[in-house]
Specification:
DUF72 domain-containing protein
Length: 263
């Protein structure tokens, strides 16, 4: 049987990625794997941010072998991606058995002038999936979905995603979490669901209140026990050494509930 901790993930960026642009007012040096050790979370979604880390990723990925399960981004922060990067990540996954899939961050966008809804079209996604057989196993495809995107016609793209992570961009919208998850289930009925949990209110560039963090964590735990979601994601590694009150509360909460049995 699995524990709650087995279904916990950390959203990872290069050390220092959030030092300057989100009004946090603190600096960070913690690496993704150091943050996993500090928070006691065994799984990670590594997302390239502002083109960091630089390719090739092989040496950077060595410490990740200590983790249980890893996703690696093929579409990074701000929707950045390239054919070269996608090929390299698939090769990286073939060499690292604990990389179970690839992830697409900031993937969806509101099209202008006839543009596509996604960084990649449905046809390009299908082509990417055709290369998911690596080293005798099949990778999964994960994607970021923001609650403010739930009114968009995303069904065809989402049908090609094995995992959908739902994120509430601004703290006041957490009051609609139940309704938003229901809508997510409607437009992506076959995908495995992950609930994204911001430990800082990036949308409003301010501290996430502890009571709001507690609410979303307790909701995630309840849904996990009910089988409604497959896991929860804490964002992000690069704020885990800033001694933010909400991060420290989350660390204590993980220690408290992590050993609960599922099923």
């Amino acid at each position: 049987m699995q524990t709650v901790r087995d279904r916990m993930w950390l959203w990872a960026h290069e050390a220092g990625s959030h030092d300057t642009e989100w009004a946090i007012g603190r600096t960070s040096r913690i690496t993704p794997v150091e943050a996993a050790y500090y928070m006691d979370v065994p799984n990670m979604i590594m997302v390239r941010y502002h083109d960091k880390p630089e390719m090739p990723f092989d040496q950077y990925a060595v410490p990740f072998r200590r983790l249980k399960q890893v996703f690696w981004s093929v579409v990074g922060g701000a929707g950045r991606s390239s054919d070269e990067e996608r090929r390299h990540v698939l090769e990286l996954a073939a060499r690292n058995p604990n990389i179970i899939g690839v992830f697409m961050d900031d993937f969806f966008r509101r099209p202008q002038d006839g543009g596509d809804l996604g960084v990649l079209s449905v046809e390009e996604l299908q082509s990417l999936r055709n290369h998911f057989e690596v080293a005798g196993r099949k990778l999964g495809l994960g994607v970021t979905l923001y609650t403010y995107q739930l009114d968009m016609p995303l069904e065809r793209h989402l049908a090609l995603c094995d995992w959908v992570s739902l994120w509430t961009w601004i703290e006041p919208d957490l009051m609609d979490l139940e309704a938003n998850m229901t809508r997510c289930e409607e437009i992506a009925p076959e995908s495995r669901k992950l609930l994204g949990l911001y430990m800082y209110d990036y949308g409003q560039r301010q501290t996430m209140p502890v009571e709001s963090m507690q609410m979303q964590c307790e909701t995630a735990l309840r849904w996990l026990h009910e089988g409604r979601i497959e896991g929860m994601i804490f964002l992000a590694t690069c704020i885990c050494d800033m001694e933010l009150e909400t991060v420290e509360w989350t660390r204590e909460w993980i220690a408290k509930v992590g050993d609960e049995m599922l099923g």
